[in-house]
Design brief:
By secondary structure, the chain is α/β, with parallel strands linked by helices. The protein folds into 2 domains: 19-130 and 331-360, nicotinate phosphoribosyltransferase (Alpha-Beta Barrel), CATH 3.20.140; 190-322, Aldolase class I (TIM Barrel). It is built from 13 helices and 14 strands. The chain has helices spanning 26-30, 37-48, 70-80, 111-114, 118-142, 160-169, 178-181, 194-199, 204-214, 231-242, 260-263, 276-288, 304-312; strands at residues 54-61, 65-66, 88-91, 97-98, 105-110, 146-149, 174-175, 221-224, 246-251, 295-299, 319-322, 333-340, 343-344, 359-360. Strand 8, helix 10 (231-242) and strand 9 form a beta-alpha-beta unit. Helix 3 packs antiparallel against helix 5, helix 5 (118-142) packs parallel to helix 13 (304-312) and helix 10 (231-242) runs parallel beside helix 12. Mean pLDDT is 93; it is low at 1-12.
């Protein structure tokens, strides 16, 4: 027997991505191909027994977090449930901050219509929220400086699109692949890579000139300057060669290396990798020759802690490139039936947690 919805929608309205954006394998999801098999068997039992329980499913996780994957989870429900018009879904939005145990979504209706989708929407929320939360933490640590999302090489290519959107709603300025930018209509950004420099026999200036010659002039030209482990000298050579065409230089010295320009300063700091002293030396050298317009992008092992350290010391960095740090931590989502036929019904230790911040999904 159907009952009235337990939750009420707030009055405000914000935009969500259209379900078609996600290009979901709808038939595969509907048939339970990606679902834990016990959910498929649950649906089989309910149908065989002609049972149609009106349940309210509550979704949450246990960390202070930033929501990612919500629009994708909603798309799964809209396109892959038995009949979305018979369900009432209330949810937060991608980019919303949430407290531990805060309800982020409820699904209400005939449980057999959406039971097999739990594995899929929880997995989406878990993955994207991890990325969104880590990006927000990095953005906050950088205090307004640009963050470039560089983790594509650290995971399977099929996660790029959703991860990129999670980064976007959390404040990342640039992403490195077109796939990561696809859901909001953007484009990937990048720098003159080490491989192109190697293709020109290690000549960073020549590689940068060729890049400037053949790449769209509207693209910000950023050059990696650590190929010869002498960032100061290489930065100056590139700036002299490209002038105003050069947008920035990127320092990416390996954490096992000590840049040539830093070696004479060694003594009371860790000289390896991209460190505050190296950034300061590059900035001073560029400024002395009138290249104040050239920005410094720092990458290589950056995470929240390292960025906070740089910001406390007011290191002259204009943007940070961050990679694998965006995949750290656990933000596992859980779904529980907490109401049945309008009455409390939850396993011991769980209860219905109404959340007035949730909005009705239409």
């Amino acid at each position: 027997m159907a009952t009235e919805a337990v939750t009420q929608a707030p009055a405000r309205k914000r935009e969500r991505l259209d379900p078609s954006v996600f290009r979901l394998p709808v038939e595969r999801i509907r048939e339970g191909y990606y679902s834990d098999v016990y959910f498929n068997r649950t649906v089989d039992v309910l149908r065989a027994d002609h049972r149609h329980p009106h349940a309210l499913m509550q979704v949450f996780q246990k960390q202070q977090a930033v929501i990612g994957g919500m629009d994708e989870a909603i798309a799964i429900l809209k396109l892959c449930s038995e009949d979305f018009s018979q369900l009432r879904v209330h949810a937060l939005y991608d980019g919303d901050e949430v407290a531990p145990w805060e309800t982020v979504m409820t699904i209400e209706g005939d449980y057999s219509f959406y039971a097999r989708l739990e594995t899929v929407y929880l997995g989406v929320l878990t993955r994207r929220t991890k990325v969104a939360t880590n990006v927000r933490r990095v953005v906050d640590a950088a205090k307004g400086k640009q963050i470039i999302f560089f983790p594509a090489r650290h995971d399977h290519h099929l996660v790029q699109t959703g991860d990129g959107y999670a980064a976007y709603v959390s404040g990342a300025i640039g992403v490195s692949t077109d796939a990561q930018a696809a859901w909001w209509g953007g484009k990937g950004t990048g720098t003159v890579p080490h491989s192109l420099i190697a293709a020109y026999e290690g000549d960073t200036v020549l590689a940068a000139r060729k890049y400037a010659e053949y790449v769209d002039p509207s693209v910000n030209l950023v050059v990696l300057v650590d190929f010869e482990n002498d960032c100061v000298r290489t930065s100056l050579e590139v700036a002299r060669a490209l002038g105003d065409r050069l947008w920035g230089v990127r320092l990416d010295t390996s954490e096992t290396m000590v840049d040539v320009s830093v070696q004479k300063l060694m003594g009371d700091f860790d000289p390896r990798g991209v460190n505050p002293q190296l950034c300061q030396l590059v900035r001073r050298a560029l400024d002395r020759e009138g290249f104040q317009h050239v920005k410094i992008v720092a990458s290589g092992g950056f995470n929240v802690e390292k960025i906070e350290h740089f910001e406390r010391q007011r290191v002259p960095v204009d943007a940070y490139g961050v990679g694998s740090a965006f995949f750290q931590g656990n933000f596992d989502f859980t779904a529980d039936v907490v109401m049945l036929e309008g009455r409390p019904c939850a396993k011991v230790g769980r209860r219905y947690r109404p959340n007035p911040r949730l909005e009705l999904v239409t």
